[in-house]
Amino acid sequence: MSSNKPTIKDIASAAGVSAQTVSRVLNHKPDVAPETRQHVQQLITDLDFSPSEAARSLVRQRSKRNSFIPGKVWNDEDGNPIQAHGGCILHENGIYYWFGENKDTPTKKNRLIGFNVDAVGVSCYTSTDLYNWKNLGLVLPAVKDNPAHELHINKIIERPKVIYNALTQKYVMFLHLDTEDYQFARVGLAVCDQPAGQYEFLGSFSPNQAESRDLTVFKEDDGKAYLLHSSEWNATLYVAELSADYRKTTGVFTRNFVKASREAPAVFKRQGKYYCLSSGCTGWDPNTAEYAVAENILGPWKVIGNPCLGPNSNQTFFSQSAFVFPVSGYNDAYIAMFDQWKKEDIGSSRYLWLPIRFEGEQMVIEWLDEWDLSVF
Ligand code: DGJ
Predict the structure, then answer these.
(1) How remote is the CA of residue 284 from the centroid of ligand 1, in Å?
(2) How far away, in angstroms, is 215 Cα from ligand 1 center?
(3) Tens digits of per-residue pLDDT, 208-263?
(4) Which of 320, 342, 344 to mutate to test the pocket of ligand 1 (most atoms within 8 A of CB)?
(5) Quick one: pLDDT at residue 49?
(6) Which atom of ligand 1 is nearest to the CA of 158?
(7) pTM summary value
(8) pLDDT > 70 in the chain, percent
(9) Residue ranges of domains in the chain, CATH in brackets
(10) DSSP category for residue 155
(11) Ligand 1 centroid, distance to 341 Cα (angstroms)
(12) For the CA atoms of the chain, what is the radius of gyration?
């Protein structure tokens, strides 16, 4: 070995492959045979190899993006696939924060939903341009050593949503917490003084004593916030007013889309009207998206139909809604985030981000192979 610190060349010669192959493994390129990949990864661990800062910055430059490519692997600035599923965006002082489920662990069988993964925790990435994302790691890791803990790796931690509470001056994270059999069905709460610090887990609650699985939160300009959650075994979507500190529900809530079985809600406000995009309930498998419009977030909601347009639009382009957010600095510009689940290898699930177009009050999400913010 040339020095104490192994280089890519050292790994390559130990593995009997080219330096290029090692680099392809490091950059998670798909075209490396699984046994070679495993062998190289093992040597990387055994020889304690870590890419130098120079190599990292080369990766960053090479992988700098200036467009969205829905459904393709989306690498972070270090060249690793982004792990932020079922996520949300928070925009603060010119920085976008992308929170989501880290599912970078082997997929296992699950009796109720076919497949699942051990919980890893909630990741956070930051960006100033929405194309290039820096990985800040886990802001709320799953708990490894206490099986009774609500965040233990054998539990379900899904759909993190973060909003800022001006009263307590805390960022508040809402989570769908569950047991492997999805019977727990509660809302997890975590708080932090900064958007991307380590979140303190506060425990869980049942909003208005009801079940809660897929969820999202919506914050009004005046600071009032609402929790939208699939309840009654996902048959009905509840909209529940949150207390001023966002830590509990107030008792004011409505039952919406009754027995229509909607989940994966994504809510936003445009020109005084509320829009709720959601999916049907078919586990990891895609189904038809639907959106509804309301004058009041508590309803009544008027179902309009499927906003998707283009190939496979009846199956939401083989994906499921996660979140919708307005793009800062653009007029009437909203991006819809979807998860394209790969149920047999959930950690390799992809993201689809697509622009929303409005025709009057009608919302259209049209498939694009590649696009950038100039569409707005
Ligand atoms: C659909 C939900 O929307 C996802 O978040 C996840 O819970 C899957 N079901 C599991 O099947």
Answers:
(1) 6
(2) 11
(3) 999 999 999 999 999 999 999 999 999 999 999 999 999 999 999 999 999 999 99
(4) 320
(5) 82
(6) 5
(7) 0.87
(8) 94
(9) 51-375 (2.115.10.20)
(10) S
(11) 9
(12) 21
